[in-house]
């Protein structure tokens, strides 16, 4: 055995993949704390995959005895759930909730971007920017220009606006206005404005881009 410790990513408390292996406890603790810090800095974490609710955990495991065969953690409903690791060669030392950053889809450029890329490219220019939501879409308006982004669900889009707004407030950034609600007249104007600029209404009317994947089928 060339290593004594492993850091494992779990999804819904089920092992997904080994992230890294280490020989010493000091080195694995440094790596684990680095990932924990990265998790705490995530503004918008992934909560859905293939239409289903998901969450992630980060586990530190030791080869041989010396840890715990199981750990209790709270799920997204606040229930205590027992997490077992059934590999007889390893024991759980600790496990924490872990935020995996969600990507957002840039509709015009047809590419997924991280929140940091989104902020750096569209929200750092001088002047007032407006960020609003319509169904599962996010609209960034700057002067007479706009950018359109898509998230998986209507709920995700609202969560994105809320999280980003709270992050900006906590950092004292005051050059963005976050619109929470549209009147009927404002929504109609926005639909017409976006359609005139090449965005089909059938795209704007959608509330979701992902659906639960059925057995032996692919994502719609």
Give a written overview of the molecule.
- This protein is of the alpha+beta class.
- The protein has two domains: 5-98, no CATH class; 104-205, no CATH class.
- Helices cover 27% and strands 34% of the residues.
- It has helices at 25-40, 115-122, 154-170, 184-196, 201-205; strands at 5-11, 14-22, 48-49, 52-53, 56-63, 70-74, 80-84, 90-98, 104-106, 111-113, 129-134, 137-142, 145-150, 176-178.
- The strands form four sheets. The protein has a six-stranded mixed sheet. Strands 2-1-5-8 form a four-stranded antiparallel sheet, with helices on one face.
- The protein is elongated and about 65 Å long.
- The termini are far apart.
- The model is unreliable at 211-220 (pLDDT under 50).
In percent, how helical is the residue content?
25-40%
What's the helix count?
A: 5
SS content category: alpha+beta
Number of domains: 2
Mean pLDDT: 83
Uncertain regions spanning at least 5 consecutive residues = 211-220
Distance between the termini: 44 Å
- Shape category: elongated
Number of strands: 14
The largest sheet is: 6 strands, mixed
Radius of gyration: 21 Å
Beta fraction of the residues? 25-35%
* Element pattern in H and E: EEHEEEEEEEEHEEEHEHH
Strand order of the largest sheet: 10-9-13-12-11-14
Descriptive tags:
about 220 residues, alpha+beta, 2 domains, 6-stranded mixed sheet, 4-stranded antiparallel sheet, 5 helices, elongated, disordered C terminus
